[in-house]
Amino acid sequence: MENEDNSYKESLKKSLKKEIRENLKSEIINEIVSELKAEESLLKKELVELLSKKISSAELKKASTKHKQIEPKKTSEDVECLISVKAFLKISSHALKYANKEIPKEDWVEVIGLLAGKVSNHKLYIEDAYPMGHGSAVYAEIKEYKNFVKAFKDIKKSNLFICGWYHSHPSYGAFMSSEDLGTQARYQKLWDKSIALVIDPYEIDGNSYGFKIFRSNLNTEEWYSIPFEITEALDVSTLPELLDFIKPIIDGKALFLEYDED
Ligand SMILES: [Zn+2]
To answer: Is the ipTM of this complex over 0.90?
Structure first.
């Protein structure tokens, strides 16, 4: 009898021990899992904070130092600058090629090019634009002198001359920065009426052409905005759709496919 009792006790002990061990095991596992989860979300939070801090300080730096806004002075002159649809479409599509929704925003860069025009009846006609390059988000400049010479010859061949330059400020506004002054000075030394066109393709929202034209007083280092018109009738409200439509061409793709093409 005593033996039976003992063996029953032993087996009970054994099964209880096993149950307790299992319970403890799962309790410990649960604790570890929830601790890991807490750590993970903390880590995530820290990472997100770190990243957003990095971005906001970078944006801040860009806004405060890179493109210090100089308030443009309005002139009382009448329209003295006319720009062709062709030039406008080339400039805006060039800007979008390196700053569009398929590229992460932190990889967007500025583009730069030459403006080709002619003077007639005391008015400057910007007939064409010559895309020259794209650069780091900090500064875009024409690096290749031999490309500049090539473009110069091409422009001369079409009976136009280099009347200025353009560059883009993807998503931070069409204004001239103090850094842009040095570039403008070089063009105004070539021709004193040279203009600077700056475009923010993200301001082409159906209400605006997204660009402005400036000239500088090199002595006072002030910018003057130049009034302009588009030479042909171009409805500003149709521009976002138009640019969207031509975007595949910029990427070297077909605009559309026939049913059996792929
Ligand atoms: Zn600029």
So the answer is: yes
